[in-house]
Amino acid sequence: MDNADLVLQELSESGVLRLTLNDNSRRNALSEAMLKRLGDLMVSTANDPAVRVIVLAAVGPAFCAGHDLKEMTAGRQADDGGREYFTHVMKTCSGVMQSIVNNPKPVIAEVAGVATAAGCQLVASCDLAYAAETAKFGTPGVHIGLFCSTPMVALSRNVSNKHAMEMLLTGDVLSPQRAAEMGLINRVVSAEELSNFTMQTAEKMAAKSSMTLAVGKQAFYKQRTMSLEDAYDYASQVMVENMLKHDAEEGIQAFIEKRSANWQDK
């Protein structure tokens, strides 16, 4: 399969870009080729004004089964037992996950199937996640002697410590209802309604000022690592700069005048 075909693209008139993982034969595993394709797309969409919101979906019964273990096993054949190769793969994967967080556009995971290990990490790295009743979530690395250490980073930033550790230490697969209770996903929707629901949510965001969403997304993730005092200082500065933007002035004036705002995304 050509690398371009690994992720299908569909852009709506309103600027919602659907990226669909399309490697069903490998359960949409994060192979080297898949990681490169996803990474390239995150870079290219970051500054594309035509793209306002990104939806990440998948074909087949698996949203993403994590790393390609056959590729990883083949990497062991190197003289160093695979150390250099494993380091490269983990660095690449970590870079892709960070590119989702750092992308100024909202990224929504639409999960209809199984999301395990690095696939669960992929879901946790997205800003929002909606799942069908057919979805499953887990970090089952302990079953094969491999603790899900990199998925742990995204997971522990979405759910409580004890919920994260329970998933990581037991390797149990969770129902979407349980994943929603824990905060890993936003909501469970029927399989028949999932795509429409996700797209409707994305369309709501696409109708907003993309400048405002970008400012807010960056600020949200940056303040989380700060102390309370530093976070308020930082967020106050962000609010001041935001207030000085055209779209904030226009939005407030439109609200006062009871009319629709004319966003210029600046």
UniProtKB/TrEMBL annotation:
InterPro entries, per database record: ClpP/crotonase-like_dom_sf, Enoyl-CoA_hydra/iso, Enoyl-CoA_hydra_C, Mitochondrial_ECH-domain
Job description of the protein: May play a role in fatty acid biosynthesis and insulin sensitivity.
An MF annotation (GO) of this entry: hydro-lyase activity
Pfam families in the record: ECH_1 (PF00378)
Record Gene3D superfamilies: 2-enoyl-CoA Hydratase, Chain A, domain 1 (3.90.226.10), Lyase 2-enoyl-coa Hydratase, Chain A, domain 2 (1.10.12.10)
GO terms of biological process kind: fatty acid metabolic process
Sequence similarity: Belongs to the enoyl-CoA hydratase/isomerase family.
Protein name: Enoyl-CoA hydratase domain-containing protein 3, mitochondrial
UniProt keyword Coiled coil present: no
Keyword annotations: Fatty acid metabolism, Lipid metabolism, Transit peptide
